[in-house]
Design goal:
- By secondary structure, the chain is an alpha/beta fold.
- The chain is built from 12 helices and 14 strands.
- The protein has 2 domains: 124 residues, Enolase-like, N-terminal domain (Enolase-like, domain 1, 2-Layer Sandwich); 266 residues, Enolase-like C-terminal domain (TIM Barrel).
- The N and C termini lie far apart (50 Å).
Length: 421
């Protein structure tokens, strides 16, 4: 039974407010969790509740959301027993009563949802990943494969190039080995940035390097060069993943990419050429979130060797996942729990993706905290990949360090990449 809920406003990795909640059960078990916030957001995402007071944090304050946790949410759920996560989340969703969490705020609801999960795990004497696996009804068999930001552009880095991120995918068999590989490539990229651009190793929101690339292809070329400079073979030791985030440079039926105004078919041709020339194994949001007609064309053009991942397209929304699956629009879900606002709704989207035979990449956001629950969720839910950010910044390293601890505790292998080249 929930005895008490508390909450407070804290700051995320971009210095913006977010919500932390604590849940105390009558057994004495307590769980605390904080929620992230995105910069590159889809229009179908659940709504964060912000204060709108321009004199304080530019209107981004979260005191209203905090007030909803300790006010109407606490009044509705304290003193009541909830046997499962689904029971609690159903009550929170009904209490809000809107389609997009606009009344109470997805940040308030998710903070309570996560804190309850942590408290229940503590009550059962289980690590969080074991508890989450039991709630979902899946076995814990593997660790997720790392996809690690190397270079950033788009909304994460001031838009020096249109696309958002180029990530490295170590083919290593362990988390430990994968992080060591990422370190080597990252340091080679730092040296390349200094030599080629006379630039310091300044980083974007998620820790990726952000030199002034002249074109997107220069960004991809530099990623391959950094892998080689680290003494590794592109495509064998380290592959690439690309987050295009194309919604953010799409308007009036055209994609404004590197000085070109491309229609959907032209954009698909460019993406297919990238995948032919570079060791790309995953392409995220290659087309805009409402360009539904052409997503199946993109999937066909890239073929089975490249994972076609939906982020803004899907927004961890079960209905959108099912629509995309029926249309043959994607082969992977980028799962972000705060896009939908509760663990149970994210689990529903996860199940829909699995029913479609898709891969699932569990992802952090550009505005993160030092909370490491995402690492536990990626293991407990059997995520195929995890996308946290670079190997800099403490809010990113908290997740990687938690994965190292889980690896040490369990000895589980890293999941194999599907259709790896």
């Amino acid at each position: 039974m929930i005895q008490r809920l508390t909450a407070r406003e804290i700051l995320d990795s971009r210095g913006r407010p977010t919500v932390e909640a604590s849940c105390l059960l009558t057994s004495g078990a307590i769980g605390t969790a904080s929620v992230p916030s995105g910069a590159s957001t889809g229009t179908a995402e659940a709504m964060e509740l912000r204060d709108g007071d321009a004199s304080r944090y530019g209107g981004l304050g979260c005191l209203r959301a905090v007030g909803n946790v300790v006010g109407p949410i606490a009044q509705a759920i304290c003193g009541r027993p909830f046997e499962t996560q689904a029971d609690l989340d159903a009550e929170l969703i009904a209490l809000d009563g809107t389609l997009n969490k606009a009344r109470l705020g997805a940040n308030a609801i998710l903070a309570v949802s996560l804190a309850f999960a942590r408290a229940r795990a503590a009550e059962r004497g289980l690590p969080l990943y074991r508890h989450l696996a039991l709630e979902l009804g899946v076995p814990v068999r593997t660790l997720p494969r790392l996809t690690i930001n190397l270079f950033s552009g788009g909304k994460h880095a001031g838009g020096q190039v249109c696309i958002q991120d180029v990530l490295i995918v170590p083919t290593a068999r362990t988390i430990d080995e994968g992080l060591a590989t990422a370190f080597a490539v990252y340091q080679a990229a730092v040296a390349l940035t200094r030599r080629k651009y006379a630039a310091r190793a300044l980083t974007a929101d998620e820790g990726g390097l952000a030199p002034p690339f002249s074109t997107t292809e220069a960004m991809l070329e530099d990623a391959v060069e950094a892998i080689t400079a680290a003494g590794l073979q592109p495509g064998r030791d380290v592959a690439l993943a690309v987050d295009v985030a194309s919604t953010h440079f799409y308007a009036d039926g055209r994609y404004a990419l590197d000085g070109q105004a491309l229609d959907s078919q032209g954009m698909i041709r460019v993406l297919a050429e990238w995948c032919r020339r570079y060791p790309i194994v995953s392409l995220e949001d290659g087309l805009a979130e409402e360009d539904w007609e052409h997503w199946p064309w993109l999937r066909d053009a890239l073929g089975p060797g490249v994972l076609v991942v939906g982020d803004d397209l899907l927004c961890t929304n079960t209905a959108r996942v099912r629509r995309a699956a029926a249309a043959g629009a994607a082969t992977g879900l980028l799962l972000k729990v705060n896009q939908v606002g509760s663990l149970t709704e994210a689990a529903d989207a996860y199940r829909a993706a699995r029913e479609a035979g898709w891969q699932v990449t569990v992802s952090a956001r550009s505005g993160e905290t030092e909370d490491s629950w995402l690492a536990d969720l990626s293991v407990g839910w059997g995520g195929d990949q995890i996308k946290v950010g670079s190997i800099t910044h403490s809010e990113r390293l908290a997740k990687y360090n938690r994965l190292l601890a889980i690896e040490k505790e369990t000895g589980l292998p890293v999941v194999a990449w599907p259709g790896r080249r």
